[in-house]
Amino acid sequence: MLIRNITIENFQSYYGIQTLEFSKGLNLVIGKNGKGKSKLFNAFYWVLFGKIYGSGIGWCSTNGLPYSAKNLMKRHEFINQKALYDLQVGNNVQTRVRIELENDKGLLFEIERSVIIQRLIDNGWEIDKNHDNAWNVSDYIIKVAHDSTTGTKFEEGDAAEDCINELFPEGIRNYIWFQGESLERLINFRDSKTLKAAVKHISYYPFYENLSNIITCSIPEIEKIETRKIKENNKYDSTIKGLISTIETRRGLIANEESNKIKIEEHIRTINIALTDDDTKMKGLASYSGLVSKYEQCKQEIQAVMSELTNIDNYQREQLPKLWLLRGISPMIEKCEGIIKNHTEEQDTAPEKKYLDDPSRAKLEGILRDGKCFVCGSNTSDGTDAHNWVLHRLKEQENYLREREEYENNIEFSKKFERFIGKIQDYPNLLLISLSAIDKQYKDSEEKIEKLMISRRKFEKQKKELDDQIEDAKRKYGVDPVKQAQNFGILDSTIKISRNSLEKKQRELTASIQTLTKYKAELKKAEEDLEKISGKQGGVKVEETEWKLISVFLGDICKRVQENARIDLLHNIEFQSNEFYKQFTQHDSGYKGTVKINDDYSIEFDANLNPGHEDRKKLSIINAMLSLNQKAMNTFYPFISDAPSSNFDIPTTHNYLLGVKDVFDQSIIMTKDVDVESEYYQNLKQQNKVSRIFSLESHLYCPEGQDPEKHEVSTDVIILKK
Prior knowledge:
This protein has 722 residues and is of the alpha/beta class.
């Protein structure tokens, strides 16, 4: 089967119409987080199966939103946000995904799923984007057009869904279309049922099982016909009738007891699985009791630090408006102190006595009037230097007398003002002392905060180390030591109850086996007695007797073939898984381990491996089964996965992609773990079986440099290799 292309219109992060063309081999879609990889994966799944994947929600039908998503996703939330933002009241917009594919016979299928959205009200985008009542979203419409011997056929509704189910049976979907985070549910090393379910869905083994079941179910029916005809042929022979009655009764008892035995065995298997799990948990709790103590103590230390930080924060909030608001005004207080000091010095200083009254004003005026100095006889007429000096002397006397007059006039006010200055001149010093104390309070609280933050970082670092150890315990023992520590007594009691139940069921199984042995012996004796009578008088054997003998013979053969095929299949899966695992880990130099699968479907868990190696083992097992299934059934499905390599480093991702391209005729992988600047990318790009490479980028509808809202960003598809 080959997917030719997919066209996406207004679906999730894809705005407008965008088409991606695919080919055989590996089709690689590269994009950083939030660029639209998971939305592309959803587009594939939605067009085929009407469901989208939500992290923490799982697969949910869009027709059932919001209830199918546990009310965590709104009815209109899978519609592109910009398409909704642009929509006017009363207008419609279409969300559509269309896929073209070709089946193994070369017949073309065109599958389209769509919905119509209408805006009902406009209360503003910020309100309407969060309310379903602003939008009317129709149920999806599904259409399929496909080639047939009589031309192109068009299917809609249930007929279209049936057509898709024939192309992609429900059981296999989760294995050929899966997200990285669902890997644990598909293959779980602690639950053998996951591998058993995988084998049932994606291998050829169930055909042997079905054949064996058909034969096994046919034998009782043949026996009923056989005994009925023998009765009819010997209706007057009481001995034969008695033996037939005994045979029928014993067969019924054996069938009931076989059913009872199967139930007991299943119950025993369930108890053993639970016991193994609980014993592992107990071992983990016992091994990590000291870890739990350290973890709880570390949590208490962090809580104490956080409580003290909260107290200091409350103290600072209380002090800020009361006192700390004054922090920083010291320069102003110091300036005020200087002003007061300067004023005091000025007030304490009287005008300097300048002795400007010798000669007196009258004599100076006489010199000017006479034009001659009365002392030395110098010429003081107008225009001479002596005349100008006398004028200057008169001016100085005038200014001095004015200053003295002002001083004398203000002397009383000055005395009062000086008394006031005397009272406040110490205030600045006192305020500066208070401000110093306020500063000290603030600095002390900040120092406490800094010390507490150092302690907090130290304890959080310790907690991170303890968290890593707890995660290690979860991985190794399947138990959270911290959460389960308080349930230690309950777990211990559960184990005791399980062991008692196991002993009881084992006794019941022993009794059932003994009862079956007894019934089978009685049945065998009755059949032998009937055979003896048949040998003596004939008429007991009928045609169905031969059918029964042949069916029993074929049933035994089928069971042996079935069991051999099952064991052989598990061995082949193990071998093929290790081949893939070697390829996925060939760059690793440390311990890598191997994939080991037991005959009871359990996968041996290796506690020495990290989660990245575990995921590689799981992917190796899934790829191995799909590869074996393709070879055996000659049915080739496209392999589509989102973030299968999320726990891998770049070199491991590279090796994984190289392996995938050789396993599947067509694969479409969405990943963030490929660096287009690296040599690994260049190597991938040059591979013949790497047919298409796309890059997903964000298209912004807002001014440059501004953080976009959800409706202002969409996904653009860029072709890197075609």
